[in-house]
Amino acid sequence: MAGKVCRLSASRLARPRCAPSPGRCRSGFRQRGASPVPDVVYASSSAQALARSAPVKGKRSRRQLGFTIIELIISLVIVAIIMVGLLTAMRSFGITEEKLDKRLVLVDQRRVISGFLDDILGVAVLRPRLAKVGTPEESTFLGRPDSVQWVGVMPARHGVGGLYHFRLYVVGATEGGSALMLSYLPFAGLEVLPDWSLAEQRILVDRLEGFSLLYQLEGAGEWLAEWRNTAEPRKLARVRLSIVAGGAEWPLLVFPVRSLMPDGTGVRIVNGPG
Fold first, then answer.
1. Where are the transmembrane segments (predicted)?
2. Which domain holds residue 173?
């Protein structure tokens, strides 16, 4: 009612009635000496952690979802790059091994051939056939730029040995192209000419691309393209071979030639016993 003033009794002023919330009275005034307490009570930290860890219905975690298509493509590209590098390295190793094998075979071939030619060409019979003086057949050593014939000693082995006629020349009828051929047949005496149709043949170097011979006499510095032994006092001192085969040039092969039975020694060449 207007104009009326509500009078509060002393007892009400002394003990005001408070709201259900502790520390606050019903009239909205905070009780004197009461500690403040929030109106909303929050859940404990453990309850909040459980609430956060609980999966939400209808959603999945990132681990359950797996990889994306972009991540898979990037992984495949990285694996492909690694595999290409490994295959390239393995192929390089194979090519290197093949080249090394070919190189070793070539070096071994050079060693065997040079040693064999040094044995059979290093000692030769340099005595003319007196019954055929003035003709090429008088010579037991007949050297040309692309071939050479001589009488030398075959290295001793099973069933082979002694004096032989040798012929080193180039043939071009092999499957791999030209080849360096060696023909040989037993020595039958100075006055007997060799019949090369009966000779045995061996290929020394195949895939031959270049071959040349030069001859140097005793006491002379120049190299001659041809030489045959005659009654001339100067004798052969060295033979030089140049070989190109398999796309590679061989080192120059120089063989010193020693006369097996020089003139004036009184040595007689015989064939067989006696």
1. 65-90
2. 118-259
Cα–Cα distance between 63 and 185 in angstroms, integer?
Answer: 88
Residue 19, domain member (yes or no): no
Judge whether 204 lies within some domain. yes
**Tokens standing for 35?**
């500690």
| pLDDT computed for residue 123 by the predictor | 86
CB 164 within 8 Å of CB 184: yes
Q: What pLDDT score was predicted for residue 168?
A: 93
Residue 22 resides in a domain: no
Residues 19-31, buried b or exposed e (16+ Cβ, 10 A)?
eeeeebbeeeeee
Contact 21, 40 (CB under 8 A): no
Helix (H, G, I), strand (E, B) or coil at 136: helix
Give the pLDDT confidence score for residue 213 in this predicted structure: 93
Q: How far apart are CA 8 and CA 28, in angstroms?
A: 16
- Higher-confidence position of 158 and 151: 151
The answer to whether residue 211 sits within a structural domain is yes
Per the prediction, the chain carries an average pLDDT of 75
Kindly report the CA angle at 259 between 253 and 262, in degrees rounded to 5? Answer: 165
Following DSSP, what letter does each residue of 21-84 receive, concatenated? STTBBTTSPBPTTPPP--SSPPPPHHHHHHHHHSPPTT---HHHH---HHHHHHHHHHHHHHHH
How do residues 172-186 score in pLDDT, each as one tens digit? Answer: 855 667 899 999 999
Residues 159, 163, 165, 171, Cα dihedral to 10°? 50
More confident residue, 110 or 262: 110
Domain count along the chain? 1
At 7 the pLDDT is 47
